[in-house]
């Protein structure tokens, strides 16, 4: 899943140790039209939803940049969707491309998290903003993997 060792691959938390001085994280649930956002930290192990980014292309990166400036995370976390059997699909590749773009534009470490069913879980919990709730689920899954 992590693609560790592949050119341009982004490490997953399960395959790469996350330095202990990385305490704060900004997470994204990438979507073509909307990107959920959450903030969280290692100490509490919880995530808080932030307003969803409703933009595409460069307009999305303007908003991402503003969030990074506001929250000053030590690293970024992105959810990467897969089919139930673990196979990649078009959205998998789009999320991985977004992860590479984040790393290149903002010079921050980016960790990938398998986010199968995060949106389903967010919707079933009655979330008003399923994208932001999904970003929280992704980030909390990542934070649990650190302990």
TrEMBL record:
GO cellular component: cytosol
Organism: Variovorax guangxiensis
Annotated GO MF terms: hydrolase activity, acting on ester bonds; nuclease activity
CDD domains associated with the record: YqgF (cd16964)
A GO biological-process term: rRNA 5'-end processing
Top-rank taxon, per record: Bacteria
Name under which the protein is recorded: Putative pre-16S rRNA nuclease
Subcellular location: Cytoplasm
Pfam family membership, one: RuvX
Claim: Transmembrane is one of the keywords in the record: no
Keywords from the UniProt entry: Cytoplasm, Hydrolase, Nuclease, Ribosome biogenesis
């Amino acid at each position: 899943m992590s693609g560790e060792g592949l050119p341009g691959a982004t490490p997953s938390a399960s395959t790469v140790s996350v330095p202990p001085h990385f305490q704060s994280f900004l997470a994204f649930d990438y979507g073509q039209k909307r990107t959920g956002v959450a903030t969280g930290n290692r100490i509490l192990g919880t995530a808080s939803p932030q307003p969803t980014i409703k933009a595409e292309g460069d307009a999305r990166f303007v908003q991402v940049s503003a969030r990074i400036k506001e929250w000053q995370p030590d690293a970024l976390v992105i959810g990467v969707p897969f089919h139930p059997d673990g196979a990649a699909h078009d959205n998998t590749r789009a999320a991985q491309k977004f992860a590479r773009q984040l790393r290149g534009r903002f010079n921050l470490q980016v960790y990938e998290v398998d986010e199968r069913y995060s949106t389903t879980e967010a919707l079933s919990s009655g979330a008003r903003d399923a994208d932001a709730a999904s970003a929280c689920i992704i980030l909390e899954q990542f934070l649990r993997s650190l302990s």
